[in-house]
Amino acid sequence: MNPRSLIIAALLTLIAAAAVFTFKYEVRGLEAKRQALQNELDREYWRLQLARAELEYLRRPERLAAQASQLDMVAATAERIIEPVMIGRRQELLLANNPLAVALPSGALVKLRARPALPPGLDQRLLESIAQAPASPPPMTGPIRVVSQ
Question: Three-state SS string across 92-125, please?
Fold first, then answer.
């Protein structure tokens, strides 16, 4: 072997060792980054599990029924459900809740309440539903039922 070949082999060996050394530290840095991301992923997983458990607790029917009875809420019945158009607009409802003082020709003051305008045809149905509704709501005896349309 000639000396020139030995020098080239030694240089190639040093370059290979330096490359392995550099790659080794890059791999360690990437492994540390991967481990940090895995730890963050684990923390987020347990936060999600905790949120799901809390949501299941909050959705328990017996807990909701107990809270509803504490707030004097009653279950909805078919007689108490109305169509959204029967509620009226906000300004009409505010006007209906605030009596207006009106001076009569005799000089007396009278408080008048405005009735919210209803769409045509709903007047009769509204009066019928009010006539059929019980004077006071029945006490709640069971869990709350959600009525969907």
Answer: HHHHHHCCEEEECCCCCEEEECCCCCCCCCHHHH
Query: 105-125: string of b/e by CB count within 10 Å (b at 16+)?
Result: eeeeeeeeeeebebeeeeeee
pTM for the model stands at 0.40
Per-residue pLDDT, 149: 46
Q: Which two tokens stand for residue 47?
A: 């936060």
Name which of 103, 109, 129 is nearest 118 in CA terms.
129
CA 12 to CA 29: how far, in whole Å?
26
For residue 14, give the 3-state DSSP assignment: helix
CA neighbours closer than 13 Å in the CB half-sphere of residue 114 = 14
Closest CA to 142 of 61, 78, 72: 61
Considering only CA atoms, which of 88, 85, 87, 112 is closest in space to residue 98? 112
Matching residue, tokens 């069971």:
142
Q: Are 110 and 102 in contact (CB under 8 A)?
A: yes
CB count in 10 Å sphere of residue 80: 13
Low-confidence ranges of the chain (pLDDT < 50): 149
To which residue do tokens 């107990």 refer?
66
DSSP-derived letter for residue 86 is: G
